Amino acid sequence: MWGQGGASGDAPASALRRQQVELSEARRAERLALLERFVEVAAEAERAAFTRPGEWDEATPWFVATQDAMTRLRVVERLIRIQFPLPVHDAVRAYFLGLNRVVREGLSDGESVRDHLEDNRLAFLDAARAVMG
Q1: Is the Cβ–Cβ distance between 86 and 127 less than 8 Å?
Q2: How many CB atoms lie within 10 A of CB 2?
Q3: Alpha-carbon span 79 to 83, nearest angstrom
Q4: pLDDT tens string 13-70
Q5: pTM value?
Q6: Three-state secondary structure readout of the chain
Q7: Which of 13, 34, 95, 110 has the CA that lies 20 to 30 A from 42?
């Protein structure tokens, strides 16, 4: 009798554990997809920063494409705030703001886009890796 009671008692517990593992895996996959989306759009925005013309206005094709990329990046940045711990969002936000500054204002002569963005990009990647394990 003990064996039967124990076995039937274990079935609901193992089903619950299996559901918890499945939910955890689904959340991890969702987070990973969000990070991938941010990295992709950030790369697009970085390309825009590297190709920023000296003069442009709101009708310039560069601006139109860049505006779209920056809007998408802002949306993903906000979604990361919802789904990740604040240290990850803080790193994402610093990277976004630095990238936005380079795109909008440009850099002084002699400043490198890569050098300007590198520390914030690495901080974001390190924070994401720490959370994702």
Answers
A1: no
A2: 6
A3: 6
A4: 888 899 998 999 999 999 999 999 999 999 999 999 999 998 999 999 999 999 999 9
A5: 0.83
A6: CHHHHHHHHHHHHHHHHHHHHHHHHHHHHHHHHHHHHHHHHHHHHHHHHHCCCCCCCCCCHHHHHHHHHHHHHHHHHHHHHHHCCHHHHHHHHHHHHHHHHHHHHCCCCCCCHHHHHHHHHHHHHHHHHHHHC
A7: 110
